[in-house]
Amino acid sequence: MGFAKDIERLLYNAGVDMPAKKFVWLTLAYSFDFGLAALIMLLSTSETAAAVAFLVTYLCSIFVVYVMLVLSASRRIALAESMLPDFLSLMSSNIRSGFSADRALLSSARKEFGPLTKEVNRAVKLAVAGKPFDEAFETVGESIDSNTVRKSVRLIVEGTRAGGNLAELLEQTASDVRRFNTIKSEVSSSVMQYRMFLFAAAGLGAPFLFGTANFIIGIVANIKSTVGLNIIAANQAGLPLMGGSAALSPELTLYFSIGALFLTSLFTALAGGVISTGKASDDAKYFPVLLGLSLIVFAGTRFILERMFSVLFLV
């Protein structure tokens, strides 16, 4: 039940009008189809590779759908936070024009306010049904995962219940939210250098080191297979690196490097979101770009080194 509620809330924030169970089943079904297609394409080459491709494609498809859902929800939440001051200012102007609180709330429900429009319409229905205005207005933002929206609405409701002027409370809250959004943007700009350092380390430094390590391991494996030194001869010649059986094969290190770059890119993108805005999902959109860059640098490093030293080391 908890998982279904989380997915349902995520779908609501992303603007997807679909039951959570139906969405989950469709995601699993389409992911299974993609995995089955990968299995069929590789079944003629190797059963093991086909099974691995099926599992990887299946899990990656689910992961991609979840990431797209989270990114869509994050964009709509950011839109709601940016439109909140305009909504509050418009409602305050309507009240000063002589509208009642309920009428001002209804007149402030504009399509350009994005996710807030649905929240306001729901509050209006509650108010029309006979619920007190403060209780109806308190429902605005309940289904949006935004502390800014929730705290702003709660502040207005508590001020109204304490006898404050609603129009002034709305205008002052709108001003405070605008100031908060400005400060948040300035903080994001000031930590940009830390994000760039993380992205450079994950997109350039790590793949360069992995590519160099893969090249060196390939050199050692090729030289050992070509020269055929045994342990005693290698030690007598002062080449202990050439003696004994290889603990890591070039193929294994290649797969390990790709997996490590995948995880490094993922957690770097999440860390960038935490540093910039406090939400890990805000920079998740950079994960595909970061992963693609790291794989290009990794492959380019191996290619350049192999071309430079192919004659010398017989690679």
Question: Summary?
Answer:
The chain is mainly alpha-helical. The chain contains twelve helices and no strands.
Report the strand count. Answer: 0
Into how many domains do the coordinates divide? 2
Main sheet characteristics: none
Shape: elongated
| H-E string | HHHHHHHHHHHH
Rounded to the nearest angstrom, the distance between the terminal CA atoms is 56 Å
Helix content: over 70%
Residues in β-strands, percent: under 5%
Enumerate how many helices there are, as a single number: 12
The secondary structure category is: mainly alpha
**Rounded to an integer, what's the Rg over CA atoms?**
29 Å
What would you note in describing this structure?
- This protein has helices at residues 2-14, 20-42, 47-96, 101-107, 115-128, 133-137, 147-161, 166-190, 192-227, 231-236, 250-276, 287-313.
- The longest helix has 50 residues, at 47-96.
- The protein has twelve helices and no strands.
- The radius of gyration is 29 Å and the shape is elongated.
- The chain has two domains: 83-183, Receptor-associated Protein (Up-down Bundle), CATH 1.20.81; 191-315, no CATH class.
- It is mostly helical.
Pick out its properties.
elongated; mainly alpha; 2 domains; Receptor-associated Protein
Furnish the topology, listing elements before pairings:
Layout: H1 2-14, H2 20-42, H3 47-96, H4 101-107, H5 115-128, H6 133-137, H7 147-161, H8 166-190, H9 192-227, H10 231-236, H11 250-276, H12 287-313
